[in-house]
Write a structure and sequence with these properties.
single chain; mainly alpha; 10 helices
Length: 276
């Protein structure tokens, strides 16, 4: 199987490393003994990196490294919720439509078409405006917006496989329909496809959350750190600490890169499976 390489290292290795680092940062942030308000100290404003402050401080004297770690809390858990909603809602609807076909498939696809006609980012903004900018609201809206892509992918895969010879053989041997669908089709033949789609949903929520936090109004608000509001808060400050905005910008880029590379690797593996 052909793998995409990054500097001689497989895309899968790079993606797994970046996503694992993101997960480790989030887990550490959950128990981190850091007070976002008490850390304000104007006497140490815009300091450069040092042993005491690995990435320096922002223009309020707050530790950039600590805030970068805590910023992962703004999107990791909500992003996982997004992935679960997109995977379950899209996967279940797509599985039923792809398995049974007929009017059910037509109705589900019509619903996906209607839902997908609204740009995902616009849909999330509308949900935030109506129900409030809470991260859970944004996560649910993003999951719903990403569900049609998951469902369409599952429908296409099941329509391709439901009349395959091995499915006919399983039916001939009396294997229950539910087992054929849930295990032999969804688990054995579509899990990589679904995993790739939910990774993309997670990455999209990372983009949504950091963008809204950067723009203000809908995202996480100061003093609670988010990579988006950290970037907005420090970018363009005269004589400021460059790491105070470069670190969150790099973190956003690396987070998106990690999910994209993992998704690409899964896509290559799916393509190799189909070709084999």
């Amino acid at each position: 199987m052909k793998e995409s390489l990054v500097g001689g290292i497989s895309a899968r290795t790079v993606g797994l490393t970046l996503v694992a680092a993101l997960g480790a940062a989030w887990l550490f942030a959950l128990v981190a003994p850091y007070d976002v308000v008490a850390d304000v100290d104007p006497t140490r404003a815009s300091l450069g990196p040092s042993v005491a402050h690995w990435l320096g401080t922002d223009h309020l004297g707050r530790d950039v490294a600590w805030r970068l770690l805590l910023g992962s809390r703004a999107f990791v858990a909500p992003g996982l919720l997004t992935a679960v909603i997109a995977g379950v809602a899209g996967g279940v609807a797509g599985a039923l439509a792809g398995w049974f076909g007929g009017p059910l498939a037509a109705g589900v696809r019509y619903g996906f078409t209607v839902g997908g006609s609204v740009p995902r980012f616009v849909f999330v903004l509308l949900a935030g405006a109506i129900f409030g900018p809470d991260p859970v609201v944004l996560a649910v809206a993003t999951g719903v917006a990403c569900a049609p892509a998951v469902g369409e992918a599952v429908i296409a895969r099941l329509e391709e496989l439901r009349r395959a010879e091995f499915v006919l053989a399983l039916r001939g041997h009396g294997v229950p329909e539910a087992r054929i669908l849930l295990y032999h089709l969804l688990w054995v033949n579509a899990r990589g496809l679904v995993a790739r789609q939910v990774l993309q949903a997670f990455g999209f929520f990372l983009v949504v959350e950091t963008t809204l936090s950067y723009l203000g109004g809908f995202g996480v608000q100061e003093p609670t750190p988010s990579w988006g509001n950290m970037l907005a808060f420090e970018f363009g400050i005269p004589d400021g600490n460059l790491y105070a905005w470069m670190a969150p910008a790099a973190a956003i880029w690396l987070g998106i890169l990690g999910t994209a590379l993992l998704g690409q690797d899964l896509g290559l593996r799916e393509g190799a499976r189909d070709g084999g």
